[in-house]
Structure formats: C-alpha cells, structure tokens
Model the fold of this input.
Amino acid sequence: MSDVENKSAVLEAFRDGMRHVASTVYAVTTFHDGKPFGILATAVSSLSFDPPSLLICINQSASLHEPLASVETFCVNVMGLTNRDVADNFMATKTAEDRFAVGEWENSHGVPVLTNAQSSFVCRIAHRHEYGTHTIFIGELIDAHHREDAAPLTYYNRHYIDISKAPDR
Ligand SMILES: Cc1cc2nc3c(=O)[nH]c(=O)nc-3n(C[C@H](O)[C@H](O)[C@H](O)COP(=O)(O)O)c2cc1C
Done:
C-alpha cells in the first residue's frame, strides 16, 4: 500500500472510529458585533478544576471561528433531550437570526445562554491554540448552571440517542 493510500485508509478508520464514540452534544455560542453566533459541537472537554476550565475545538472554516478569534467570552450549552429542536434548527439554518429563532435564549455575561439547557458554562477565553484544521479555545469559567432533571442529548453513529434509557450493566 502506498503512503497516500495508507493515509486515506487511516483517515477513514479515524472517521469511522470517532463516529462510534457516543458524545454529548453542545451548542457553543457567542455574541460578536451585536449578533449571536453558534454551532453544534461534540469536541468539548472539561480541562481543569483550578482554575475551573474547559476546552472546545472549533473548525477554522466554521462561522463561529472568526467571532471567537476576537471576542472574550463564549458559552457551552450542554444540550438535553428536550433541546433536540434547538439542535435540529442549528443544523438546518445558516444565519445568526435563524439559528437562534428556536429555543429560549437570554443574554448572560454578554453571551447567548439557552435557558433550559441541561447545563450552561459561561467562559472567558484564556488561550487559543491553532492545530491542523481546528483551533482549541481554552475557557475559564465565569458562571455555570445545571438542571438536575435533564437527560443528555447524545450523538452516536450520525443519530441522536437517548442514553437515559440504557440499562445499567
Ligand atoms: C453532532 C455534531 C457535532 C459537531 N461537532 C463539532 C465540533 O466539535 N467542532 C466543530 O468545529 N464543528 C462541529 N460540528 C459541525 C458544526 O456544528 C457546523 O455544522 C459546521 O461548523 C458548519 O457550521 P457553519 O455553517 O456555521 O459554518 C458538529 C456537527 C454536528 C452535527
């Protein structure tokens, strides 16, 4: 197998492998020039408790990327099952106005926060690191809210699944 063939086989196996990693879905949002911006993301991770921080990986081609290059804050909205309509609308729309037309959003600390999300984490950008196609943004927590009664919206093999119904093993 040539190097090129091997590289594309590895990339395909990487995509297949990652598609089968079940991930919580997040709506990452910010305000820029008076307009809300946001995309759905799964590449989000808790990073440190001191300082309390998390990281998000955003494709440099995403509409949210340029705003995040210049703003100071963003919000990670952890999507619950009841936020499925918001997730579907994010994927179905392009403009800022249309993307935030579904769901109840409030401006908190200068960023759009989904009021009935499972959790919301408002962060101040502490660090940006470009790597390959993406930029890693490290955010230090300014504010956080959590709803105990919510079940997570989970993405697995290109579908949303309800893991709250999965039996304990
Ligand atoms: C379930 C799911 C997870 C995604 N995760 C990420 C992610 O972690 N980072 C990212 O940059 N884009 C991610 N995307 C793609 C973005 O949501 C979005 O579709 C893409 O950036 C194009 O958006 P735009 O039209 O606003 O540029 C994900 C999409 C879906 C459906």
User: Anything to note?
Assistant: The longest strand covers residues 119-131. The mean pLDDT is 96. Residues 20-158 form a domain with the Pnp Oxidase; Chain A fold (CATH 2.30.110.10).
